[in-house]
Amino acid sequence: MTTKSITIKNTVGLHARPATFFIQKANSFKSTILIEKGNRRANAKSLLGVLSLGIEKDNTIVLQAEGVDEVEAIEGLSQLLIDGFND
Fold it and tell me: Any catalytic annotation for residue 69?
């Protein structure tokens, strides 16, 4: 299992359009990917799951991936979040 903590920097957090881009990217990987905020966890490939976490700017989240491409999944999703969706 590969994990990484990331602080969200884009202005709207992980809502609506950014969440859709995030989920599309997550679905491009074979690994199981979870996203965690506080004590709540959701499937990173589920729009409702990600939106239910209410991730806002400056929140710190943890990404967890397990599977054949877990390292690539964490790096790809981390970079998308760090870049702030070009916000």
Answer: no
